[in-house]
Automatic annotation (TrEMBL):
Taxon lineage: Bacteria, Bacillati, Actinomycetota, Actinomycetes, Propionibacteriales
Name the UniProt record assigns to this protein: [Ribosomal protein bS18]-alanine N-acetyltransferase
Chain ranges of the N-acetyltransferase domain: 1-146
EC numbers: 2.3.1.266
Transmembrane segments: none
Predominant cellular place of this UniProt entry's protein: cytoplasm
Amino acid sequence: MIRPAGPRDVEAVAELERDNLGADAWSEGLVAEGINDRLPTVHYLVAELDGTLVGHAVASVVADVAELQRIAVDAGVRRTGLASELLDAVVALAREGGAERLLLEVREDNAGALAFYAARGFAELARRPRYYGDGATAVVLEKALGPGR
C-alpha cells in the first residue's frame, strides 16, 4: 500500500535512507522536516507491506516542474514492482500538482537505476559533474507529464 507519510514514519524512513543511500542518506532531522510539512513543496510517500514500512519516495512539486528527490525500497522486497508503484504514485502526485515534467538525478555509475528510469520513459537532460559527495557525476533525467503523455 502506498500512502502519504505521517509523523510516525520519520524513524522508519530515516532508517531506509541509511540502509539504501549510505553516505548520501538524509538525516532523521531533515526527514522529519519534510514529513512534518515544514518544507512546503515536499511530499513524502511511503510503501507498507504487512504493516511494515518497506519503501519511500520524496518529491517536490513547484508550478509546472516536479522533482523526484528520493526513492528507496528495502532490499528484501526489491524486484517486486514496489519501486514502480512508488514512481507511479509520484507521477500522479506531480500531475495533480500541475507539473508538466518530472526531473530526477541518478548517479552515473548506477546502471540499474538508469535502466529502470529509461524503461519508464525518462530521457537524459544533462549531467552534473562532481554532484555527489564522493565526486560522482549525476545524470539528470526528465519525463514529460503533459496531457496525453
